[in-house]
Structures are given as C-alpha cells and as structure tokens.
C-alpha cells in the first residue's frame, strides 16, 4: 500500500466497486450533514441499502462523530442493525429501528436520513405540522406523514404504526421529535432533507413576524410538489446538487478523510 494514501480511502479487496462507490457517497453525506449543522452529536443515522438481495445496509458506527465517518469504517448491518461483517466498531441496533422499519417495507426507499434540528423539531412540535405556504413547504405538499410520539424510538412493536403513519409518502414527521426522509438514492434523499430543512427554517422565521401568512391554494402546492418530483426523477439534478455541495464543503474543509 502506498504510505501516502490513507487506509480510509483504499478499497478493501473483498469490497465490490459498486459497494465502494456507495460507501464513498454515504460518507460524504454524513460529512455534509455535519457541514450544514444538522447533526445531533453522535446520535441519529443515515442508512443506505446495499445492492443485491441480502437486505444489507450501510450505517455509521455508534459513538463516532459524523466527521469521523469514512468509507472504510461504515458498518454493514442487517435489518435488525446487527453487524454482518467484522468491525472494531459497535452497531446501534436500537437506533436503527426507525430505519429498518422503512427499509424493510419500502422498496422505493434506498436511503433514509433522520434529523432533529432546531427548526425541524420546532415544526414537529406544532399540531399543524409543516406549512405549505412558502416556496419550500409547497414542494412538500402531499408528501408528509405524521407519527404520534410514543417515547424514544427503541421498540420493534412501534414499527407497524410508524409505517402506517408514513404510508406511501417520503417524509415522516415524528411528532414532538424530528423527521425521517427517504428516497431512491443518497443524492435524492439529501436534496429532500435540504428542502425539508429550508421549509422548516422559513416557517419558523415567518412565525416570528407579526401578521398573517399569505396562504397558497392547494392546487399550487400540488403543482410545486409534482414539478419538483419530475425534476428530481427525470434528470441528474439531485446528483448535481449533491456533488456541488461536496465541492463546497471540500473547499471549506479540505480532505474529508
């Protein structure tokens, strides 16, 4: 091995090119969430489904900061959050409960990100949930499910109710808690999270200003949501956005690992 190359970016011999590319992108996603200030110290997860029919996923080692996640130290786990390959790091099966519920039931969701930023948690604490009266909130029209808070998400028996709350949507607001978003790949999921975060921030700021919000008709909200979905689905928009954010982060921080 070239001593100048960090082991964190050298593909192990038993790792396929496809899995390694996914590991790199997922590690970048962890660093992006930290870069944007959306982390919750060592808690929460970003998970990505591995190709193949084994129902294996990549997730962060419990106890590491998001900035310490690398392509090499990501854990390969099953739907219960148990490690399926040796690693010096521990998994956190309890914290994977939310992710495993979504991954196990939704073939159209290959990546799940869970956050509880200040803005998202504030909206999750409000009975009305997300407003669709701002530019970003309108893009979420018809895409948000709500799940009643049952305490810290640790127990498998809650999975059925979480899935019922999510339905066929891609955003699950965990009331009094935070949010989980999921899409077909990492880039699309990150863009969806960014949109959710912006919607929450604008809603919180608008609530600080006296006076009524200017309501948008439901048909405008639906139009915005449909157009956004068409853009994400039929073009490389999400990848362009993700890659641009990675370049921005690298320019600010330098090498990631």
UniProtKB/TrEMBL annotation:
SMART domains: Aldolase_II. One of its GO terms (molecular function) is actin filament binding. InterPro entries: Aldolase-II_Adducin_sf, Aldolase_II/adducin_N, Aldolase_II/adducin_N_sf. Signal peptide: none annotated. GO terms for cellular component: cytoskeleton. Residues 24-204 form the Class II aldolase/adducin N-terminal domain. It comes from the Bacteria. Belongs to the aldolase class II family. This is Class II aldolase/adducin N-terminal domain-containing protein. The lineage of its organism: Bacteria, Pseudomonadati, Pseudomonadota, Betaproteobacteria, Rhodocyclales.
């Amino acid at each position: 091995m070239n001593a100048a190359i960090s082991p964190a970016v050298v593909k192990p011999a038993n790792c396929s090119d496809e899995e390694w590319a996914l590991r790199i992108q997922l590690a970048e996603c962890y660093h992006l969430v930290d870069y944007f200030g959306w982390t919750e110290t060592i808690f929460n997860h970003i998970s990505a489904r591995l190709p193949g029919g084994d129902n294996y996923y990549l997730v962060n080692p419990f106890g590491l900061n998001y900035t310490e996640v690398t392509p090499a130290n990501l854990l390969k786990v099953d739907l219960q959050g148990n490690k399926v390959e040796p690693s010096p790091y521990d998994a956190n099966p309890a914290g994977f409960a939310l992710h495993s519920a979504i991954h196990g039931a939704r073939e159209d969701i290959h990546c799940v990100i869970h956050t509880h930023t200040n803005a998202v948690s504030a909206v999750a604490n409000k009975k009305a949930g997300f407003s669709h009266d701002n530019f970003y909130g309108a893009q979420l029209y018809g895409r948000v499910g709500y799940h009643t808070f049952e305490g810290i998400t640790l127990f498998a028996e809650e999975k059925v109710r979480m899935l019922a709350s999510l339905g066929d949507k891609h955003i699950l607001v965990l009331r009094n808690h935070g949010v989980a978003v999921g899409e077909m790949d990492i880039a699309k999921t990150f863009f969806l999270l960014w949109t959710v975060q912006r919607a929450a921030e604008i809603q919180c700021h608008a609530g600080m200003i006296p006076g009524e919000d200017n309501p948008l008709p439901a048909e405008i909200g639906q139009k915005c949501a449909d157009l956004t979905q068409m853009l994400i689905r039929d073009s490389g928009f999400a990848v362009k956005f993700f890659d641009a954010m990675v370049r921005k982060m690298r320019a600010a921080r330098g090498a990631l690992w």
